[in-house]
TrEMBL record:
Function recorded in the entry: Component of the F(0) channel, it forms part of the peripheral stalk, linking F(1) to F(0). F(1)F(0) ATP synthase produces ATP from ADP in the presence of a proton or sodium gradient. F-type ATPases consist of two structural domains, F(1) containing the extramembraneous catalytic core and F(0) containing the membrane proton channel, linked together by a central stalk and a peripheral stalk. During catalysis, ATP synthesis in the catalytic domain of F(1) is coupled via a rotary mechanism of the central stalk subunits to proton translocation.
Protein name in UniProt: ATP synthase subunit b
Entries under CDD domains matching the protein: ATP-synt_Fo_b
Transmembrane segments: 12-33
InterPro entries found in the cross-reference section: ATP_synth_B-like_membr_sf (IPR028987), ATP_synth_b/b'su_bac/chlpt (IPR002146), ATP_synth_F0_bsu_bac (IPR005864), ATP_synthase_B_chain (IPR050059)
Length: 165
């Protein structure tokens, strides 16, 4: 080996130095770096797992939020429909009440008109009879005898009594 220019003692010392350096590096540098890389890999995996969990949780909460919004819309729609039904019911009640009151007022007015009309007809009839009786009396008193006069008056009074009944 000496012919090649390699000296065995310095080569052996260099190999020993290299092995010592390798052991020192392994103990103080390689193992801690590997541990640090393992921990980092573990943290990255945990982060990815956590990220997946959060993604699933987010999707669940998003789905739940959508369901809640849909339920809220349905409930709001039901409330609006119920309010419309109630308003329509109240409207129908008010219209029915107004129709009933109008019918009652019309019936009362018709009754009053009928009563008043009958009263006016009776009054008019009585006045017409009274006028006719006076006219007959004036005619009879001047041209007829007392006996004929009495029979006509009695006859007319009986007619008037029949008509009044």
């Amino acid at each position: 080996m000496e012919k090649l220019g390699i000296q065995p003692i310095p080569l052996l010392l260099q190999v020993i130095n290299f092995l010592i350096l390798l052991l020192i590096l392994k103990k103080y540098l390689y193992v801690p770096i590997l541990n640090m890389l393992k921990e980092r890999k573990k943290k990255i995996e945990e982060g990815l797992e956590y990220s997946e969990k959060m993604k699933v949780e987010f999707e669940k909460s998003e789905k739940k939020r959508t369901e809640i919004i849909e339920k809220g819309k349905l409930e709001a729609q039901k409330i609006v429909e119920e309010a419309k039904k109630e308003a329509k019911k109240k409207e129908n009640e008010v219209i029915a009440r107004a129709d009933k009151e109008a019918s009652e007022i019309i019936a009362k007015a018709e009754k009053e008109i009928t009563i008043m009309s009958e009263k006016l007809n009776k009054d008019l009839h009585k006045k017409a009879i009274a006028i006719a009786a006076k006219m007959v009396e004036k005619l009879i008193s001047s041209d007829l005898t007392e006996e004929i006069h009495r029979s006509i008056i009695d006859k007319k009074l009986k007619e008037v009594e029949r008509q009044l009944k």
